[in-house]
Amino acid sequence: MKPILARTALLVCVLTGFAQMAQAREHECSLAGAAGKYGYTTTGTIVSGALPFAAVGEVTFNRDGTFTGSQNTSLGGNLVVETLNAVYSVDRDCTGTATVYVYHGSTLARTSTISLVWDNDQKEARAIFLTAGTAITIVARKMFNDRD
What we know:
alpha+beta; eight-stranded antiparallel barrel
C-alpha cells in the first residue's frame, strides 16, 4: 500500500508543478500576445516652447516585432496626419521599447523612442516618450478581442 501512496503523492507533486509552470507562462508577455490592432491616445507637452501635443490613432502590432499605423496629431493647435512604422520588443515581464518612425507623406518627420508596458492580459498598453524635452504619454487598448 505504501508504494501506491508514494507514487500517488509523487504524481500529485509533478502535476502541481506542471500546473504552476503553465500558470507562470500565462502571466508572461510575448510578441504573440501583443499582436493585434490597438486604438490609442497620446497627450503631453513638448517642453521647449511649451507646446501641447495630442494624437489619436491606430496601430497594428505584428508578431515579428514591427508595427504600422496612422494618427491625427495636434502640435500647438497645428493639425497633421501622420503614418507610423516601428520596431518593438516585449519582455516576459510585460515591459518593452519601440523605435517609431513618423512620416508626413513619404518624408520622415521624426524618430521617437518609447518605453512600453502591457497590462490587462496584453489587451492594453501604456507608454512614455524617452525623447529629452518631452513629457508625452500614450494609452492604448486592443480594438478587438481574441474571439473576433
